[in-house]
Structures are given as structure tokens and as C-alpha cells.
Amino acid sequence: MAVVKFSGTSKIEIIYPEYIPSEFLSAVKEKQEKPERCVMCWSLRLEKTAQVAKLNGFYTFSTTLLVSPYQDQKLLKKIGNEISQEEGVFFHYEDFRPGFRKAHDEAKAKGIYCQKYCGCIYSMSRQLAESEERRKL
User: Fold this and answer.
1) How far apart are CA 20 and CA 35, in angstroms?
2) How far apart are CA 22 and CA 13, in angstroms?
3) DSSP state string for 90-137
4) Is the distance from CB of 44 to CB of 24 less than 8 angstroms?
5) Residues 98, 103, 104, 105: is their CA dihedral positive or negative?
6) If 91 and its partner were Cys, which of 27, 80, 116, 119 is the partner (CB 3.0–4.6 Å)?
7) Closest to 87 in 3D by CA, of 46, 42, 33
8) Per the confidence metrics, is the pTM higher than 0.70?
9) Cα angle value 65/68/72 (rounded, 5°)
10) Which among 4, 2, 30 has a CA at the least distance from the CA of 15?
11) CA dist., res. 43 & res. 83, Å (int)
12) What is the rounded distance in angstroms from the CA atom of residue 122 to the CA atom of residue 103?
């Protein structure tokens, strides 16, 4: 796992809350297509992140999705702010997209894996299918 390797070399402590795939699958079962699936996923992930931040005494939470040029920044900001109000933890929004290419290039140079999909099973399946199609050409 790239983040484990990075945290070890950078001396950054990472908190790994338990990931329960059934929560995600249950949340998106009626909305398996984009963008509805993404909204459900973002809400679930940001809510968990805010709860872990609060539990550990942090005043702020955020998401790495804010660096992606492929994600809906306006909607992420809205969801983050709503969860901030519910959980009582500040959501730090910043448009990190201008740094995407530089960060991606630095990660590659350091041997850090950069996946080409958001991380959900639906997105991963689509990415694998598209890769397979390209190989056939």
C-alpha cells in the first residue's frame, strides 16, 4: 500500500479506520451509476473521516479528492460543509487541482502507485474492462 510506504518514510502518522465494504455496497445499491453513486460514496467517506477526526481531537478534516481534476469540486465542498455542520468538525476545502500534475509526477518519480480510478469496485471494474479493450487493439 503506497500510503503505508509513504507514511513510514515521511514520519507522518496515518490513522486507518476500519473499512467495511458492506457499508459502501449497501449505501450505493440503489444508485450504482455515476454521479449518484459518487455522491453516496463521498458522503459516506467524508462522514467517517469527520467522525474519526472528532474522535481523535482534530478540529479539521478534508479529502484527497480535492486534488483530482476528475471529481466534482463544488459538490464535494457542499457535502463536506454539510457534514462539518452535523459533526461539529471544520471541513477544510481548498482547490488543490492546480497541483495535480506536479504531485502526480512527483509520486511517480518516488515510486508511489497512482491508480487510474477513484477506488470503488464499480470504477475499478470499468477501468479494468477499458484496459483490457485497449490491449486487444
Assistant:
1) 22
2) 27
3) EE-----GGGHHHHHHHHHHTT----SS-SSHHHHHHHHHHHHHHHH-
4) yes
5) positive
6) 80
7) 46
8) yes
9) 75
10) 4
11) 8
12) 25
The CA–CA distances, whole Å, from 91 to 2, 17, 18, 50 equal 25, 18, 21, 8
Confirm if 83 and 43 have CB atoms less than 8 A apart: yes
Alpha carbon distance 65, 72 (integer Å): 9
Q: Is the CB of residue 117 less than 8 Å from the CB of residue 123?
A: yes
Residue pLDDT, tens place only, 53-104 = 999 999 999 998 998 888 899 999 999 999 999 999 999 999 999 988 998 8
pLDDT per residue over 13-45, tens digit each?
Answer: 888 888 888 888 887 777 666 778 889 889 999
